[in-house]
Amino acid sequence: MPGRDGADSTRFIDGSKITGAMYAISHAATALVLKRRYPEAPIWPLLISVQLVELLWVGLTFAGIEHFAIDGDHVRLDFLPYSHSLVSGLGLGLVTWAVAAFIFGQRRLGVALALGVVSHILLDAIHHEPDIHLLPVAGGPVFGLNLQSLPLADLLVELAYGWVCWWLFGGRRGLLGAIVVFNLLDIPLMFPQPGTGAMLSAHPAILPALILVQIVASWVVVWWLSSPREAPRDSL
Known about the structure:
This protein has one domain (10-221). The protein is mainly alpha-helical. The chain has 10 helices and 5 strands, in the order βαααββααββααααα. Helix content is 58%, strand content 8%. A hairpin with an 8-residue loop joins β4 and β5. α2 (43-50) runs parallel beside α5 and α6 (151-169) packs antiparallel against α7 (173-185). The termini are far apart. The longest helix is centred in the middle third of the chain and has 21 residues, at 107-127. The strands form 2 sheets. Strands 1-2-3 form a 3-stranded mixed beta sheet, covered by helices on one side. Strands 4-5 form a two-stranded antiparallel sheet.
């Protein structure tokens, strides 16, 4: 897959840093908080908004414009300034708001969608190593708290975040169970097994394809289990 310099979109590197995207279910759970705050907003636009940044990354990675690197059996998202920068996230949020507000006449929906878009960058800044750019350019300041370098803490934080989103939304137990299960299914990504790096290097399309499958699966599950077929429980 050609990169910005004509090389493959994945490469081997030396070093010990690890990086990755905050997992799809945590971003989908953010849509539950937005739904609680903006109950008139349909759940599907909210779900899409919280993953719009990641969908952009998937597309740019398939196209070879952004890329990742392999460090042993770990993945580093070493070039993603166009999809994952503070300015591009704010800009995409502004465009989303403008479309909803001025084309569809839904200003409150626009605010909800813009918050969803920007939330992705803010959450990833906690999870990623310092690879979130300030500007959508190759150089310049980068930031990231690197939570994912502590896999057990990462798992506990993501579980806690999912629970908080579920509680604020006032969801049923089935929805909470799905959030927990999705987080547990991410354990192999948090603790990669020997051979993972070689597989991804040989088949770089696997990673963006896996992320895309996770996004769609989390969308469907959260939509299904948060739907008003049965009234949600009251928040405590």
